[in-house]
Amino acid sequence: MWNEESDWIGSFDSQLARLAECRMCSRDRGERPDATGMDLEVLEVAEEGSYGRVFRCLDIHTGALVTMKQITMVRLSQGVPAPIIREVSLLKELHHANIVKLLRVGLTENRYVNLVFEHLDYDLHHFIVNRGYPKDALTVKSFMYQILSAVAYCHSLKVLHRDLKPSNVLIDHSKRLIKLADFRLAGEFADDLLYTEKLGTSWYRAPEILCDSRQYSTQIDLWSVGCIFAEMVIGQPLVQAINCRDELEGIFKLLGTPTEETWPGITKLMPNLHIYYPKFDALGLETFVTDLEPSGLNLLSMMLCLDPSRRISAEAALKHAYFIDVNYVSLLLL
Amino acid sequence: MPLHHHLFLEETKMAHRYPKPLLDTLYCLEDHIHWEEEEQVDYNEYSNTTTTNTNSSNVVLLEHDLFWDHEELPSLLAKEHQNQLSNTLLQNNLVLASSREEAVEWILKVNARYSFSTLTAVLAVNYLDRFLFSFRFQNDNNDNNNNNNPWLTQLSAVACLSLAAKFEETHVPLFIDLQLEESKYLFEAKTVKRMEILVLSTLGWKMILVTPLHS
């Protein structure tokens, strides 16, 4: 009896395995359930992270360059991890001209989820570094409008990006087209990101996250966009600290240490605020961000507002006077 | 007929889940008052005022109310649309219709056992119907395939409920615990895992009916 039952289980499990493999083949026109067998020629490893790796690849059928993000799955005894299901499902729902397109998803039973994205040749970080910075005011405005359009779209779907920074803003150089990339994994991976002390990771992080608040929302992305805005104008990150505490101090030096009046709720969020941080008076954004027209400076100040509840939304930002001539900008660039 | 039976089960479950007084509030004509009340509570919390138990109770009630109003209806409508698609399939295959009915009943039992949300059940049934439809379409030339594998629908149900729970719930039971409810088959973890992969690939990773708040 025991042997008989065991044979039966083994038999239909094997049958199911063949069925799964056959389905994946027919579904993806020859895609194999293998880490590298997705009809892609791997050209180089572009990035390595704790969650997996990023490859530059060539699509064998179309000849197009693509980016493949290979995510390592953990705790496989209980099937596909929940964060991956949520994240990939989410990416599948994002359809916007300014968001990088997820072309297809490949799965291997053993270890990886392979996400294949369209490839763009450049990112805003390299754009700023290699060109000094885009002094062209119209380019800054066009880029800002596209970034905010993508963010407003995501927020309308109640999706947060969580990790907006210049290297996650891709550029189709010939068209001056912006596409947001690298939506971070949510759930159990979020904590890893929140507390990473890697250099540069805290420079675009909203003060409510730097305060270790677990209650945050769409406003965190607007702070990041504000930091990107300032960086495009001045050619370097606004506050370049080596850890979260120093980043927060740099922000307070710039905008003033918050009080219950300027940020209602701050004394509850940070009871020891005035023990750990000196009481700075605001230096003012205009001191640091020169060469930005007054309406741009006004918009920037509404993005870099310490109090999340008073920070401007992406949707409202798109209607700001700074963008009053955006159609002309688009026409000029085309 | 199976559809009516399914809806009846769901209505019974609804009535059981929400006590009558709460159900009455769903038909309250003064929704704006509840809304204002919630705003006041938020403002108080924001001003660091102590929140009374009464306010907490109201907030909980309102959350249920809002959840029902804002999420259940669109998802139920989406499910109905999906069922129109699969209803044709079921009419042409009585054996499949029967096993689907059993699978749906099983999903509802497990959903109730673990106090999963209604949305989890809706998602699971949606995944199951889309999967069976797609699978049937691909195997149209071999009618005997499903008849020879009655376990396939039940295994699909386990995988679909697991995927729905992973998507929607904060805590998901182990595969083995998920199958404590009575059914003809008990599947190994690695088998359910493979079926999860098959379902995800078949549905093209389109697992969202209603976009939840993603944080």
UniProtKB/TrEMBL annotation, chain A:
GO biological process: cell division; G1/S transition of mitotic cell cycle; regulation of G2/M transition of mitotic cell cycle; regulation of gene expression; regulation of meiotic cell cycle; signal transduction
Gene Ontology molecular-function annotations: ATP binding; cyclin binding; cyclin-dependent protein serine/threonine kinase activity
Signal peptide extent: none
Chain ranges of the Protein kinase domain: 40-323
GO CC annotations, alphabetized: cyclin-dependent protein kinase holoenzyme complex; cytoplasm; nucleus
Coiled-coil spans in chain: none
UniProt keywords, alphabetically: ATP-binding, Cell cycle, Cell division, Nucleotide-binding
Domain of life: Eukaryota
SMART domains membership: S_TKc
Entry-linked PANTHER family: CELL DIVISION PROTEIN KINASE, CYCLIN-DEPENDENT KINASE
Family: Belongs to the protein kinase superfamily. CMGC Ser/Thr protein kinase family. CDC2/CDKX subfamily.
Name of the featured protein: Cell division control protein 2-like 2 isoform A
TrEMBL record, chain B:
PROSITE patterns attached to this UniProt entry: CYCLINS
Self-association state and partner proteins as the record states: Interacts with the CDC2 protein kinase to form a serine/threonine kinase holoenzyme complex also known as maturation promoting factor (MPF). The cyclin subunit imparts substrate specificity to the complex.
Domain Cyclin-like stretches: 105-201
Pfam family, one: Cyclin_N
Similarity comment text for this entry: Belongs to the cyclin family. Cyclin D subfamily.
Organism superkingdom: Eukaryota
Protein source organism: Glycine max
SMART domains linked to this entry: CYCLIN
Alphabetic keyword roster: Cell cycle, Cell division, Cyclin
GO terms for cellular component: cyclin-dependent protein kinase holoenzyme complex; cytoplasm; nucleus
Protein name: B-like cyclin
Classification lineage: Eukaryota, Viridiplantae, Streptophyta, Embryophyta, Tracheophyta
A GO biological-process term: cell division
TM region(s), chain numbering: none
Matching InterPro entries: Cyclin, Cyclin-like_dom, Cyclin-like_sf, Cyclin_N, Cyclins_cyclin-box
Any one GO molecular function term: cyclin-dependent protein serine/threonine kinase regulator activity
